[in-house]
TrEMBL record:
Name of protein: histidine kinase
Enzyme class: transferase
Keyword DNA-binding: no
Source organism, top-level taxon: Bacteria
Gene3D superfamilies documented for this protein: 1.10.287.130, Histidine kinase-like ATPase, C-terminal domain
Domain Histidine kinase as annotated: residue spans: 125-338
Any coiled-coil regions, as ranges: none
Amino acid sequence: MNNKMNKQALFLVVITLLYNLFLLLYFKSFLLLILSILMCVIYIFYCYLSIKKVENEVYAFTESINKSFNELINKEYANIFSLNTMDETLIAKINQKMIRLAEILEHESVKGMKEKKELQVLISDISHQVKTPLTNLKMLQCTLLEKELPKEKRIELLLSVGRQLNKLDFLLNSMIKTSRLETGLIQLNKLEENLFETIAEALSGITILAEKKNMNILVKCSEEFLLKHDRKWTAEALFNVLENAVKYSPKGTVIEIQVSRWEISTKIDIIDQGKGIPEEHHGKIFQRFYREEYNNDEEGIGIGLYLTREIIQKQGGYIKVSSTVSKGSTFSIFLPNN
């Protein structure tokens, strides 16, 4: 900037000298020459001040931009948000962009911290879930290897090994399904399917368990009920809710499945006569690995309802629960009609 200003000043001086020389030679008037020189000096001084002003403004502008970028790098977003954006100047427009960029970076920073925290919790939960069956397997292995046991006892222990392995297998499969759904690796394909057949598919997985507990399952749904949904994954979601209903309900009770079409969605109610869920826990039961304390006598890892919610939400629906302790629960699944 200084070099440019010096060149401009030198150019004006040269032009002034040439002009004054012309006046002296042509008009031969010293008064006119003096006035001309004075005007040129004033003009040169004015140009100098103008250039200096522009130089100062440019310097202030670049310093402001540099400061804003440093604040962005140092994540000092509060300073960015206080920038002036109230006028139509170039700096105000750039400040608007800076604030928008700061908002995006702050959002991504908060999102990253949240995801990091969720990952830490997830790793801790998985570690806890895997630790118990692995510990049991080690104990069973030591017992089988180090002790002479009757054949019947060995068979009993081997069956226990099988149950622990099944629990690990179920945990890993559930985690893989959940991870694929969350990351979008699995795309749900909604087609117009028979909902009654989807419910029947879900029921096929719990029929034996329900019969062992002498439980009846009533389905109130038209056999010709058509609805756009992903049949495979919706059946999985329904199965998870139904399995819990059978597990945590007393023997000889009834489970009802009621389907009704509303104006914009279809509602699927699964009603049991189980232990019920305290109202303050309604929001927790859909969390990953959450289990009610009084349900610890039943096998489970607390991931079924979480997976169900993911599946239903991926289809544009939602799930909610209403429950009364000692009387039972109603899980309501809503799927959009269109």
